[in-house]
Design a protein that fits this description.
Length: about 325
Amino acid sequence: MNVFMKDKLTKKDQRIISELDKNSRQTDSQIAKKIGLSKQVVNYRINNLLKKKIITDFYTTLDTAKLGFNSYYVFMKLEKINKQKEEELILKLKELDFVGWLLTGVGRWDLCVLLFADTMERFDAQLSQITNLCGDNLYDYNFTIMVSSEHVSYKFVTPKDFSKVRQKERKEKITLDKTDISVLKEIASNARISLTDIQKKTKIPIHTSVYRIKSLERQEIILGYKTKLDVAKLGFQWHLLLLKFQNISNKRKKEFIYFCENHKYIYYITQTIGFYNLMLDIHVKTSDEFLKLIQELRDKFSDVIKIYESIFVFKEHKISYFPEELL
C-alpha cells in the first residue's frame, strides 16, 4: 500500500468505500454488519469522506442500451480560448440533458463528452449543437461509438475483491412508464437517496418505488450503484488511454482485454468502433507508473496496438446515465 493513501484513508475508510462501490444503496447498518463496525461509526466516516470531498457522488449505472440509446464519445481539441471562456463552455455542455459524461484534460484532446442518442439523425443534431457551442474555439474533433464497457471497482481500495458492471451496445428497447422514469430520475443522480425522499419528491408511495426499483434491477436496466471518488485527493493521477488496434484475431483481442481487466492500474475499459478501438481509464501514483504501464502494454501486445494517445484528466464535470430529455 502506498504511503500517501495510508495517511489519507484508514483501513476502516477503505472497507467502507469498498462496500459503497459494490453497492452504494446499502444502508449504514448493512455496511456496518459486513465490516464489523457500528452503524454510528459508518455514518460518521461516510459523512466525513463527503465533507472532505473524497467521495463526490453516488450514482446509478443504467444500461442505456436497453432504453434505446447508443453511446457516442466525442473528443474535442480547443484553440484561442482562455479560462473564462472554457468555464462558460463547460457549464453550457453540462446543462445538456443528452450529455452523460464530461471531462477536461490535457493531451491529444481537451474535452471528452459522452452523448446518448437513439438514432444517427439525433446524434448528428446533438453533435452540431455541441460544435456550434464551441464556435471558433473548436480546433478539431472526432468520435467513437461504444460497443461495450466494463466498469471495474477502484482497485487501489479493493485490489482482490473487486466487482464489475458491464454495458453493451443498443439491441432491444424496453419502454418505461412515467412512474419508472420519475423513480429513475431521482435515483440516477443520487444512488443513496432514501425511499422517503423519493416519495417526497415524486409523490410516489414507498412500496411502489420499492417494486419499481426491483423490477428495473431484474430487467438489468439498473446495473449497479457506484461511488465516485476524487482520486486526485488520494494522490492519484487519472489518465485516459486511447488505443487503435492492428488487424488482430478475436482470440488475441480477448487476451488483451483480459489482461486489462486484471491490471492493478486499469479502472474502466470501453470497447468502441470509429476513431479508436479501446479506451482505458487508468489510476496511477506517478508518471513513471503510467509510463511503466505503457511499456508493459507495448511489450506484451505489440501485435495488437497500432497507435495510442492519452489524456491527462484534470476534472470530471458530469456523470449521469439518465438522458432525461430523450426519455
